[in-house]
Specification:
mainly beta, SH3 type barrels, 2 domains, 7-stranded mixed β-sheet, 14 strands, 12% helix, disordered N terminus, disordered C terminus
C-alpha cells in the first residue's frame, strides 16, 4: 500500500504525471493537467501527455465521464476508447473560473484568509473538489503557513477572489491527514443546515 492510499483526498498537483491505465492493464497516457468544473465543484477531466521523459502533450484528453476510478497510483479507464479530442476537456478552461492557484481567499465578513496554493480533490469515482490548500494570512493566526480549508458544494469566485463563509474558518487544519475528518464535519453541518431549511415553517 502506498503511503497516501489511505487518504481519499489529494492536492490536484499530485495527480499530474499519474499514468492513465486501462482495466486491461495498458498504460495509454499520463496526466498533464487537472481541469476543474468550477460551477459544480468537481474535476471536469484531464489533459494528457504521452508516456516517457521525452513525450509531449497529446491531442487527446480524458473527460471525467470516461474515468473508471481515480486511484492513488493511476487513473483507471475502461479502455482507450474513453479518450476524446483534447477540446472536450480544454473547453472547460474557458468557463466560469473556480478556486484556482493564486486566487485570494476572503470570508463573507471581510477577513482575508490567504492565497490558494492548490485545490484538493476526492479520489475514487466522485472527483469532487472538496478543499483548498492555502498560504494563510496573518489574520488567520497561522501567518504564511500552509493550511487546508474545506469548501462548500459550489465555490464562489468573484474576479480573482474566492469567497467563503466566515464559519468555514473553524474547519481549517494544517495536516492533510486531518482533512477528511474536517470535510466530514463541514458536510454534516451543511446537511443540518439543509434539513433545517427544509423543515422551516412546518408544524
Amino acid at each position: 500500500m502506498t503511503p497516501h492510499a489511505v487518504n481519499p483526498l489529494e492536492p490536484a498537483a499530485r495527480i499530474t504525471k499519474r499514468p492513465v491505465v486501462t482495466l486491461g492493464g495498458e498504460a495509454v497516457a499520463q496526466v498533464k493537467d487537472v481541469v476543474l468544473d468550477a460551477a459544480n465543484g468537481r474535476i471536469a477531466g484531464f489533459t494528457l501527455a504521452g508516456r516517457g521523459l521525452l513525450a509531449g502533450p497529446l491531442r487527446k484528453s480524458l473527460p471525467w465521464a470516461g474515468v473508471h476510478s481515480l486511484g492513488a497510483d493511476a487513473v483507471m479507464i475502461p479502455s482507450a476508447d474513453a479518450l476524446e479530442d483534447r477540446a472536450a476537456v480544454a473547453s472547460w478552461d474557458e468557463k466560469a473560473a473556480g478556486p484556482v492557484r493564486g486566487a485570494g481567499v476572503l470570508t463573507d465578513r471581510g477577513l482575508r484568509v490567504g492565497t490558494v496554493l492548490d485545490v484538493v480533490v476526492e479520489t475514487g469515482r466522485e472527483g469532487r473538489a472538496v478543499a483548498i490548500e492555502v498560504d494563510s494570512a496573518e489574520a488567520l493566526g497561522r501567518h504564511q503557513r500552509k493550511v487546508f480549508l474545506p469548501l462548500g458544494a459550489r465555490p464562489a469566485m468573484t474576479g480573482d477572489t474566492l469567497m467563503v463563509p466566515a464559519t468555514d474558518i473553524e474547519y481549517v487544519v494544517e495536516d492533510i491527514a486531518e482533512l477528511p475528518a474536517a470535510v466530514g464535519r463541514k458536510r454534516l453541518m451543511e446537511q443540518g443546515g439543509h434539513d433545517a431549511a427544509g423543515t422551516e415553517g412546518t408544524p
